[in-house]
Amino acid sequence: MQTDLLQEARRQVEICNACRYCEGYCSVFPALHQERFFSDANLTQLANLCHNCRGCYYACQYTAPHEFDLNLPKALAEVRQDSWESFAWPAPLARRFQKSGVMIALTTILAFALLFLAFRTLGAAGGVGFYAVLSHSAMVAIFLPAFLFPLASIAVSLRRYWQETDGKPVTPSQIVDAFGSAAKMKNLAGGHGDGCNFEDEDRFSQARRHAHQAVMYGFLLCFASTSAGTILHYVFDMPAPYPLWSLPKLLGIPGGILMVIGTVMLASLKLKADRSLGAPSAWGGEMGFILLLFLVALSGLLLYALGSTAAMPALLAIHLGSVLSFFLLTPYTKMAHGFYRLAALVRDEQRKSAG
Amino acid sequence: MTSQYDIAIIGGGNAALCAAMTAAEKGAKVVILETAPKAYRGGNSRHTRNFRCMHSAPLGPLVDGYGEHEYFDDLLKVTGGKTDETLARLAIRTSEECLPWMEEHGVRFQPSLSGTLSLARTNAFFMGGGKSLVNAYYRTAEKLGVSVLYEANVTNLELDRDRITRIDYTHEGEAKHLEPSAVIVASGGFQADTEWLTRAWGPAAKNFLIRGTPYNRGVVLADLLGQGVQSVGDPTQCHAVAIDGRAPKFDGGIVTRLDCVPFSIVVNKEADRFYDEGEDVWPKRYAIWGRLVANQPDQIGYVIIDSKSLELFMPSVFPPIKADTLEELAGKMGLPEANLVETVKTFNAACGDTSGFHPTELDGVKTSGINIPKTNWARPIDEPPFYGYSLRTGVTFTYLGLKVDENAQCSTESGPIQNLWAAGEIMAGSILGQGYLAGFGMTIGTVFGRIAGREAANHAN
Ligand SMILES: Cc1cc2nc3c(=O)[nH]c(=O)nc-3n(C[C@H](O)[C@H](O)[C@H](O)COP(=O)(O)OP(=O)(O)OC[C@H]3O[C@@H](n4cnc5c(N)ncnc54)[C@H](O)[C@@H]3O)c2cc1C
Ligand code: HEM
Ligand code: SF4
Ligand code: SF4
After folding, report:
1. Pick from B39, B108, B131: which is nearest to A192 by CB?
2. Would B2 be classed as within a structural domain?
3. What is the pLDDT of residues A155-210, one digit of tens each?
4. A144-170 burial by CB neighbour count: b if 16+ within 10 A, else e?
5. How far is B403 from chain A (nearest CA, A)?
6. Does B412 fall in a domain?
């Protein structure tokens, strides 16, 4: 990891440790106040715990032009970003994609092309519905590895994270508490529950928190929808397409709508917010990731709406292409954040129970 | 030109904002003239962390109760009786209704900070500290229609017998003036004007550090005193504490405090000790050390501890200077080597049984047989590595201010000024004649800011 980024974060958290005014905002400060000297491992954990709510920036009496030049959200965002790049496996891929929306877009276009090619060369093999365009077995042949490889990669990364931050064996209650915190996005609520500072300087608002919840729960619903489809297919021998009153649709349609709304909100908030309070170099990659999620969700909904029209094969290629790109890039884009952040929350529960 | 504003408020800290919101809620058209740029708005209020609040039962973040009687007693202790009882009791009594009022105007509280548990009952802590309080108040004030001018430096209030008739100020490099029907001054003390401080205190003041804003230069205070407005408080005194000598000249704030003195020996630039470092717990001694250091050559002290004490106190902003031997430490800190070694040797030899050492209580672990004893926490400095900090005098605020009555109204010898009120640090000398009670500055500013806002609005209507 880059020592200059760590050193800058260390300088800043040492000032915070002498001040402590922001103790009430989030989980970072109680964890910080337990240390006196900050190892790289401490800083990595603090960085992944920080939710970039920016409360501590706008409340800080030492931000520039003051000579102490505090900007903790940025210092931690840069360490966090750097930690994801160094824990990723294989790491060079993360260096390509974390920061570059263009690279994400290129991969996605490549994935479209791949699917069109697959439609042409592999074809239907006698299927109906979507499988009239690409056979079920061809889809599985493409998507199973595209799903399993990222999972394996993330597993390697999380192991590295856990070793670096000296994690202990995990107990069920730690998991429950960490998921509880993520489910409510507690650290984006500000200690007082008024929300975070993002789109309008020091005004507290729930906009970012709610938008994130929409994307996160929307995504989980879509994921559940796909899983339900898989189970229906293999266990109950009921292949797609499914009617409106079926589990995949009941989960997938609201999920897709939530994701579309949430990603549009996140993107517009992101345009209003001050870029210098995050990792400015990663802005493009983050925006690219939001747009990719938007594309996944929108194309999914359109596919449902226009599935029986002539637009279907093109929409199917776009949808499957963006999903493919999303899966493959999971370990190397912002998508990895969910995994690291959960790990950091679990690690923080361990700190708390160790007293 | 008659003014488009009913009320002009001079200053942009806590007292000014409380006055502005109160007056605007009563329908007045209010303008705030703040000399600092937006990034530094809020004066010393941006450095605060809590306010002291009376309460008969648990209230917000405050536990148990803290009644008027006990509060007033605490005030008598620190001021040695130098207070105006009527105004003091007014501030104390009103503090209880301030807490919910502050919440309604956007302030959020949090449980007392780690390391400050002793204040959990008496002081309510602002979440995010004073700057977040100031931010919330600016938002609320602007919603209420208050206009704010930054970099608006008030230079003169024209006093014509019993009325202020004009305000002169500079804004964006141009001389301007206003003629509002009422004026509230809330522009703090004069501690950032080093020349004034030097005139009052003597040449030593040049080496003092100012813990808060560089913008409280007492311009308006001097202007009003020069026109015969009545004053209160000792013009030669300031509240000063011992802080890290490496702190910036201005605005170092809370992080420059150093809590390690009780576990150390403190020497001057000749490497001689000069006072009992273990006389009492640090919160009761840091102000005394501000003066002690001010009286040493070059107004500087050096704190020396060894490795066994390093983790006994709150960390401060700058890491200590570290060395494996005392000679090396002396070299790094610019102290005479031989004498530092000698001073430590003498001190160590005077230490006795240290088995009763207890860092958070007066433990009676003391030296014997030396001229300057250490009466608690006296353990030999003998376990390398050794650590050193420098100490300087850090000024918090000055005592000289404007005399006000229960309505926060100012006066001259011939009676009240019809349209001039004062709030906050600039009139705190009426209540705090000497000493300081943690969290009382914000209480005074909130209580009298609201009173001044109310009175000025009544006058303007
Ligand atoms: C480091 C530090 C920590 C402190 N902590 C606490 C605490 O925890 N609790 C507590 O109760 N007290 C604390 N105090 C004391 C507290 O800061 C003051 O009592 C309080 O802020 C005074 O408020 P005020 O509004 O009167 O003055 P300030 O907040 O200082 O505001 C004065 C304003 O006037 C403006 N001004 C000055 N001159 C002019 C001019 N000529 N024209 C226009 N504007 C002008 C300044 O820019 C400033 O905005 C602390 C002080 C310091 C230095
Ligand atoms: C599992 C627990 C999760 C946690 C704790 C979490 C937490 C966070 C936090 C704190 C942020 C804001 C800070 C930052 O930009 O890094 C963020 C941003 C984001 N999250 Fe999550 N997240 C989780 C899961 C997810 C999931 C499942 C998705 C959707 C697939 C998602 C989508 C996003 C998006 C799109 C952003 C970008 C917002 C921006 O850049 O402004 N998150 N997440
Ligand atoms: S961010 Fe600033 S105000 Fe908050 S704890 Fe750190 S130094 Fe203090
Ligand atoms: S940005 Fe928010 S979450 Fe991160 S350290 Fe600051 S207050 Fe905590």
Report:
1. B108
2. no
3. 999 999 999 999 999 999 999 999 999 999 999 999 999 999 999 999 999 999 99
4. eebbeebeebbeebbebbbebbebeee
5. 31
6. yes
